[in-house]
Structures are given as C-alpha cells and as structure tokens.
Amino acid sequence: MDPVVIGLRGIIFMLVLLLCGVHIALSLGVSGLLGSIALNGIEATIWQSTSLSYNIVAAQDMVTLPLFIFMGILAGVMKPK
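RESULT FIELD:
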C-alpha cells in the first residue's frame, strides 16, 4: 500500500480516537505504531521502538531532565511567606 494512503488513514484513525475521548498521547502512540507496522512489519517495528526509546533515554543530554523537574517541584513547594 502507498505510504501516503497509510499516513492519511493514520491521521483519520487518530482523529477518531481523539473524538472518542482517548488521551492525546495514547492516540498518537497507537496510530504511530500501527502505521509503522503497516510500513515496516512487526519485527522491524518492535526492534525500532525498543532500541530508539532506549537510545533517547540513555542520552547524556537527558540526565538533566529529572533534576530540572525536581527543581520545579521544589520551587513550587517552597513559596516565600
């Protein structure tokens, strides 16, 4: 099947999920995974999703993200009186 047709079907499927009340992250993830399965196959999609997610989380730039969130929590809790 043509990748453009798969993309258009994925967008329509995502919009239907959003209109049904599904959360944005879940609807984006499900439509993206189904589109990747349709284009690449199940084995390539599983390999790609696992290795890509590990490489993003293991990046050295992402180390500061939890500390930045923690700093924001502390700044919100420790308001001056």
